[in-house]
Specification:
single chain; mainly beta; six-stranded mixed sheet; four-stranded antiparallel sheet; 0% helix; globular
Length: 118
């Protein structure tokens, strides 16, 4: 049973930094590409960064150069380091496996809230 636990969110001033973590269980973590998403006002989850099993990363245009995604396959943990945060980064952040099995297609963890405000 896929299970993810996100942590590390909080409140930060514009220009600040935060680091998020996500512990994953129930799937073979090291074989899946993983991603960090943030939830849009309409409820859709928008992919902001992803990392393949071998460590190749991709970023949405709005976070390139500011966010860094990484993974520790030995600890089944995904990370997102966020720098130069601004108000548009305010959102609930979620992690999930890309291409996860069909039975988990609607599964999401509880997320972790990031609020950027002065």
């Amino acid at each position: 049973q896929l299970h993810v636990v996100e942590s590390g969110g909080g409140s930060v001033q514009p220009g600040g930094s935060l680091s998020l973590s996500c512990v994953v269980s129930g799937i073979s973590f090291s074989t899946y590409a993983m991603g960090w998403y943030r939830q849009l006002p309409g409820g859709q989850h928008d992919l902001v960064a992803s990392v393949t099993p071998s460590g190749t990363t991709r970023y949405a245009d709005g976070v390139k150069g500011r966010f860094s995604i990484s993974r520790d396959n030995a600890q089944n943990t995904l990370f997102l380091h966020m720098n130069s945060l601004n108000g548009e980064d305010t959102a609930a952040y979620y992690c999930n496996a890309l291409g996860r099995p069909t039975q988990y297609k609607d599964y999401w963890g509880q997320g972790t809230q990031v609020t950027v405000s002065s």
